[in-house]
Amino acid sequence: xxxxxxxxxxxxxxxxxxxxxxxxxxxxxxxxxxxxxxxxxxxxxxxxxxxxxxxxxxxxxxxxxxxxxxxxxxxxxxxxxxxxxxxxxxxxxxxxxxxxxxxxxxxxxxxxxxxxxxxxxxxxxxxxxxxxxxxxxxxxxxxxxxxxxxxxxxxxxxxxxxxxxxxxxxxxxxxxxxxxxxxxxxxxxxxxxxxxxxxxxxxxxxxxxxxxxxxxxxxxxxxxxxxxxxxxxxxxxxxxxxxxxxxxxxxxxxxxxxxxxxxxxxxxxxxxxxxxxxxxxxxxxxxxxxxxxxxxxxxxxxxxxxxxxxxxxxxxxxxxxxxxxxxxxxxxxxxxxxxxxxxxxxxxxxxxxxxxxxxxxxxxxxxxxxxxxxxxxxxxxxxxxxxxxxxxxxxxxxxxxxxxxxxxxxxxxxxxxxxxxxxxxxxxxxxxxxxxxxxxxxxxxxxxxxxxxxxxxxxxxxxxxxxxxxxxxxxxxxxxxxxxxxxxxxxxxxxxxxxxxxxxxxxxxxxxxxxxxxxxxxxxxxxxxxxxxxxxxxxxxxxxxxxxxxxxxxxxxxxxxxxxxxxxxxxxxxxxxxxxxxxxxxxxxxxxxxxxxxxxxxxxxxxxxxxxxxxxxxxxxxxxxxxxxxxxxxxxxxxxxxxxxxxxxxxxxxxxxxxxxxxxxxxxxxxxxxxxxxxxxxxxxxxxxxxxxxxxxxxxxxxxxxxxxxxxxxxxxxxxxxxxxxxxxxxxxxxxxxxxxxxxxxxxxxxxxxxxxxxxxxxxxxxxxxxx
Length: 772
Known about the structure:
Its EC number is 2.7.13.3. Residues 309-347 form a coiled coil. This protein has 18 helices and 28 strands. The chain is an alpha+beta fold. It has a 6-stranded antiparallel sheet, sandwiched between helices. A hairpin with a 5-residue loop joins β14 and β15. The radius of gyration is 48 Å and the shape is flat. It starts with a strand and ends in a 5-residue tail after the last strand.
C-alpha cells in the first residue's frame, strides 16, 4: 500500500525534480507535489496548504537553499527541510545542517532519499504531537488555575458583583471568545444581562432587558434539567429559526450556553459568544463552563445566605442564641462522629491484627491469646473468655484474658467447668440460632437466683456473649465481662464481638485443618518409609535367587551346546527365561540403586573424565541397535571438549539410560540426536528423538518411579518405569539438573553437570584412554 506524501520542491530543473519524484515513488510513496523557483513562489506555496516535506536544490538562479530555509523558519511552520543538490560541498552542507536543515543528499545518489524523508516526516509528526500535548497541558493548567481562582474568590469575598465581573472577564480571556455574559432569567421569556465581558468592536449587552420569543417555548425546560447547548453555527439548522434570528441581531455566529441552577429553579445562563466566525466548541471548554456555572451557583447561594444572615442580625439575641445552639449541636455531632470514627478505626485495627495473626501463625494458643488480649484492651472490659461445649452440652473455659485484679478462670492448674442446665437442656439455647446476647446488669436481667449466684462467683456484673460456629455446628461461646459494675453495651461493641467470633472460628478451623494435615503428612511419611523398607528388603531377597537362576540358565545352555542338542522351541524357551531373568535383575538393581540414592548412601568416586573419549565410547554400543531398528543417529560433539570431574559410572549410566529410552520409543526412519557443549562452567548434554510427542501434562511425572506413558508405547516395549527416575536421582547426586521438553514431534532430555563440582578433590583420579 502506497504512502501519501505532499512535497514542496525548490528546484529550477524539471528533469531533476522528476528524478527526485521517481526515487520517492519507486519506494512506495504516492506523491503530491509542487515545484517553485523563487522566494515569492515559495512563500505563496507555504501559505497555500499543508506540506509534509520541503526538498530544495542548493543553488537556483536568484534563489538558493539557505534563503529558502530562512523563509521557512520565519514562517514558523515546522517542516522537514532536505537539501538535494549536485554541487553542494561538504562545508556548505555542514553550514546548512547547522542552520537547521534536516538532511542533505547528492543528486547522483538518491537511494537514501526515501528513508530520509520517512524519518524526517515521522520526527516532524512527533514534534507536532509533542507541541499539541504541551498546548493541551497548558490549557488544562490555565483552566485549573481559573477554577482555583474563582473558587478562592468565592471563598474569600462576599461581594457578588466583584465575583461575577471577574469571572466573565477571565472566562472570555481563557476561551478567546468575543463576548461572555451572565443572563438572569425572569418570567415570560424575559431576562436581564447582569454581567458582561465583551471585546472591542462588538455590541455591549450589559444592563439590557432581553426578550426571546423562543426561549420559554423551546429551551427553558431543558436548561432547568441541566442541558448544555453548544452551537457551532447558528445557521446550521441545529436551533429554531426564530432563535437564530434572535442571536443574529447581537452579532452572534456561535454560542456556548450552560445553565446556572439554584434549588428548584433556573436562575439564569452563563453564555459565551463567538461573533467573528463560527466555532467548534471542545468538550474541555464545555466542561470548564459547566464547572464555572456551578461555582457561580455556589456564589449566588453564598450571597443569598449572606443576605439572609444580614437580615437575621437585626434580631441579634435570637440569632446569637440560635447560633450558639447550632455550634453546640455541631460540636456534639463532631464529637460523636469523632468517637464513632475512633471506634471504627479500633475495630478495623483489631480485626486486621486478628486476621494477620491467623494468617501468620499456626499456633492456636498464640492466636487465641492475642485475640483475647487485644479484644479486652479495645473494648476496655475486665475479662474475655472462650467457652467450649462438650458433647453433653456442658462445657469448660479453654482460653482467657483477664485483668490482674480478677481471679483467673483458665490458668496452669486451673480449668473452670460450667454446667449450665439451661444450655444443656436446650442444646445451646439461643446461641444455636446465631444470636448474640447482652446483659447490662445481672441483678436486673431476670436471671434465676442460682444463675446470678454462679455469675457472682465469677465476679461478673455485666456480660455479652456471641456464639462460635465450627463447620455449621455450635462449637462454643466468646464472652466479654464487666466486673466493676453495670455496663450498657453499645451496638458497635456487639457487632465487633460477632466479627471476632467469626474470626475465632476461622482460627479454630485453620488449626483443625493444620492438625489433620500434619497427621496425614506423618502417616504418609510412615507409609513411604515402610514402602522403601519393603522394596529394599524384597530387592535384596530376590537378587540372590535371580542371580542363581540366571547362572543355572547359562549352565543349561552350556550343557545343551556340549551335547549338541538343537531344538528350536527349547532354544526359544531358554531365550525367554534369560530375557525375563535379566529384566528382573535390572529391576532389582534399579530399585537398590534408587534406594541408596534416596537414602544418601550411594558412593561417589570423582575422577577426571575425558569427554572426547568417553562420549563416543558410550554411544558406540547403540549404533548397531539403531541400525537394526531402521532409525537414524546424529552426533554433534565439538572438538576438544574439556575434561569433567564427576563419577564416571554414574555419568555413563545416565547417558546409557537416555539413549536406551530414545532407541526404545523412536519410530523407524526417525532421528536420534546427541549434542554436547560447555557454557558457564556447565556441561550440557542433550539426547533427543523425533517422531513422537509427549502430552504436556505427562512431562512433570516422567521422573516418578514406576510411571510410564503408556499412550506413546505403540510397540509395547514395556519397561520397569525406573529408568528416568534413576537418571534424575543420579543427575541430582552429581549436583546437576535435568529437563525434558516435547513439542512438534520432538522430545529432548537435557542434562547439566558442573565441570568441576565444589566438593571435587584436587587429587581426583583420571579416566582417559590411557588408563580406561
